[in-house]
Design goal:
Structural class: alpha/beta
CATH superfamily: NADP-dependent oxidoreductase domain
Bound molecules: NADP nicotinamide-adenine-dinucleotide phosphate
Strand order of the largest sheet: 3-4-5-8-9-10-11
Distance between the termini: 28 Å
Shape: globular
Number of strands: 11
Number of domains: 1
Length: 286
Amino acid sequence: MQQRTIGDRQVSAIGLGGMPMSIEGRPGEERSIATVHAALDAGVTLIDTADAYHRDANEVGHNESLIAKALKEYGSGADDVLVATKGGHLRPGDGSWTKDGRPEYLKEAAKASAQRLGVEAIGLYQFHRPDPQVPYADSIGAIRDLLDEGVIRLAGISNASVAQIDEANEILGGRLASVQNQFSPRFRSSEGELEHCAKIGVAFLPWSPLGGIKSAPELGSRHEVFNEVANELGVSVYQVTLAWHLALAPVVVPIPGASRPESIRDSAGAAELKLTGDLVARLSAA
Ligand SMILES: NC(=O)c1ccc[n+]([C@@H]2O[C@H](COP(=O)([O-])OP(=O)(O)OC[C@H]3O[C@@H](n4cnc5c(N)ncnc54)[C@H](OP(=O)(O)O)[C@@H]3O)[C@@H](O)[C@H]2O)c1
């Protein structure tokens, strides 16, 4: 599969988002593990997760533990997979999302994530979402300490503005490896952050690249031009959408979520789908 770069790591151009396998509506464990294995069979070497991908408050880290189990069962073929997790966003268990960006909390959360993932150092650790109660510099200072102490190998941020990207990169001494923001045909508000990442050479991981778990089934009906192009090329609207993401900049690495093996198998095919400049312009203008 086509490769892209995150920090000093080469990863598949299409990653796998773990959220649909752990939040409300998730499938049974067997199907989730089959989904992760289908991703690996297709050449996917980037898996995105978070300690907050769980349903009830008593199962924090559900998705991290699931991914760790699936990788272990796959064996040595999974050795080169980069698992990217996150901390700083919490789910108290009533369906809501809260934030905790305190340095002492983030440091403990990262160590707990490493333990669940069964690794000495986390491949890529992302500060999930800025906490308005805590100065951004303090939260990122904790991420820098984790990097310096070897608890994490690469540092990323998520849900960040251009100013926060620059601030984080400065605090990290130029070692910011990735930015994960919402971006899809439907939600394009992070276009400025995507362009900024392309300019400074930092990986950009669009989250909910297909519009999100609830909207993904309507991708073709909501976005007529994406559907038209898919029909013209004889591929799924999901492949066209992900190939469009990839065409926007060489730093883009989409992480489509999946809870079925068929979904990630199809999505992985987008890495080999080359869109002409005209098609990319037509999709971007849609
Ligand atoms: N940093 C953040 O704040 C943040 C926020 C949200 C999400 N994320 C990350 O981003 C990842 C992706 O976002 P997301 O999961 O919310 O939404 P998404 O990737 O836009 O959509 C996921 C849904 O699309 C369906 N799908 C994927 N590929 C398909 C295909 N080829 N054909 C048909 N259906 C397909 C899947 O269906 P099935 O379930 O039926 O397979 C899945 O439920 C998450 O999993 C998570 O890792 C991060």
